[in-house]
Amino acid sequence: MTRDVLLIGLDGATFDILDPLMEEGAMPALRELIDAGARATLRSTVPALTPPAWTSLVTGRGPGAHGIFDFFRKDDEASPLFRFLTSQDVASPAMWSYANNEQLQSTVLNFPLTFPAPKVSGHILPGGFMPWRQLRLGCHPEGLFDRLRALPSFNPRELALDMTQEAKAIEGCSADEYEPWVDMHIRRERQWVDIVQYLRKTEPSAFTALMFDGTDKIQHLCWRFIDPALRETLASPWDRRVRDKVREYYSRLDTLIAELRESFADATIVVASDHGFGPQVRTFYVNSWLERMGLLAWREGQAPASGDATKLGLDQLARHVYQIDWSRTRAFAPMPSGNGVHIVKADQAHPHGVPAGEYRAFRDDLAARLLEVRDPETNEPVVLRVSPREALFSGPHLSLAPDLTLELHDGGLFSILSSSESVRRRPLPTGTHRPEGIFIAAGPEIRRGVRLEPLSILDVAPLLLHQLGLPIPAVLEGHLPVGAVEPQALTSRPPRYDDISPALTGVGDAALDPEAEAEILERLQALGYVE
Amino acid sequence: MTYTRDQILAEVLELLNSVAQDWEFEGPVGAHTRLFADLAFESLELVILGAKIQERFNQVFPFPELFAEIGQRQVRDLTIGEWVAFIERHLNQPVGAVAVPTRAPEGV
User: Fold this and answer.
1) Contacts of A133 in chain B (CB under 8 A)
2) CB-count exposure of residue A243 (10 Å: 0-12, 13-18, 19+)
3) What's the ipTM?
């Protein structure tokens, strides 16, 4: 067999958007790929968030094992400090480590939590929070950055993170900012494919993984322009221009997928998203609610200004440390991205925290009260589910997870900002994550034209490993989706399960100061994670 | 291995000079260079470089202490020399465990 596998990540992609585009003929290459292979809904992690979800997809392990629950994590269970996570914090081997273990080369482009780059055979260009001015440091192997500079389309400022440009899109989302911002993403995706093609031609890898992240960003900021259900709200000529520009993005993306398919004609191609997407109709101000419940208090004179609660409090991310009155606080939500509520446990530093003997009852009561929160306008419940951490996660990092993780009825993320009301309706729906992502696979050993029952995001790694001819570690938490594979291939190459353990590389403690946290938060706002 | 301050400075300058070329930064970079005022750093960039420093010296540094201290300053900035002094202090008296796992924690 030829060991040739291409993973195309479409960040945040959902069939709710892609199916209508395919039906309208805007994405013929994706449609052909689906017709030639298998498709399924792909269930994400809880929370359905980029860092835990992509890490779970590429490691085949859940957050309790790999330790990535959010963009940030506590240093230890008792610590009030959270730090930004890097590859040095990922505690489970990823696809490229398994490939490297079997002397196979990988090319990994634009995946989060790949900085500093693991020292594996092949090429890595980190994605996520990789500032363009540091991109050289993120490129592996040494010298790759200079080689890529020779490519005509190579522009690191647009390829990696440029806060100036991101800020324009955030703060200046005025009418004339939308279209150039989408254009920038069109150029960015083009660059990534040019890099793939160059490396494919010069140093082909057995495993190639490329993530397009424009899908997620555009859906966050431009949801109402792409959601078929909201078409009637697009009344002005400007609305329609932005809608056409967003459609152009998907059409151009489809062209890139066609190019990749041609270059990887004999490969197994897997297209997957880390989570789905949908509209968010209301905002739940969880810390304000906790305050009203008497479970959270701000230090005297330190209460965050109520002001306009729809604006981001960039300087307030660290307020859980500096502004919370720990003598009167028993629960708080420190991060705006993962719907996690933390309970203050009684210890020397927090004598008024929840004693160990009362913890379970306190947590159960808090969960029950959260489920009673109602939208004041519609009386609909706001919180769909409240899960204690051991119900969602297992593994050595369990104690670092939030005590409770919420899933909201509208699929959205709560706000940690202060508000005079605990729940507010949004004037217009915005885009936010949903648990249902996409899975598409095609290739010589993949069954044609099959629609599978929903898969878990943890099922992707076993398929990728099988298609690479590699053993599947027994500790992986997902299952090989046998319904996607030709029976003959399963007979001739039955999956091998093994207790393999590639070395992890890296050191690390990439902690953030409040300003850096604020920059991250600004970025999160750009992606629509925070108010 | 014990590193002198000059050795650490040389390592840090090498790192900075390697990326400064991509910004078309032509000014001199030395111990007195301010990361924010002179090199127009964003805090995130300092974090990224910090992760790279940890990788280079194979040691975890308590950068949160440094970042928190910078945040309290009247003029919020950091010279390369101060950064090097901080690294030196912790490099030769390590406070964090060297964390180069050879196996996944759960014995994967």
Assistant:
1) 19, 22-23, 45
2) middle
3) 0.81
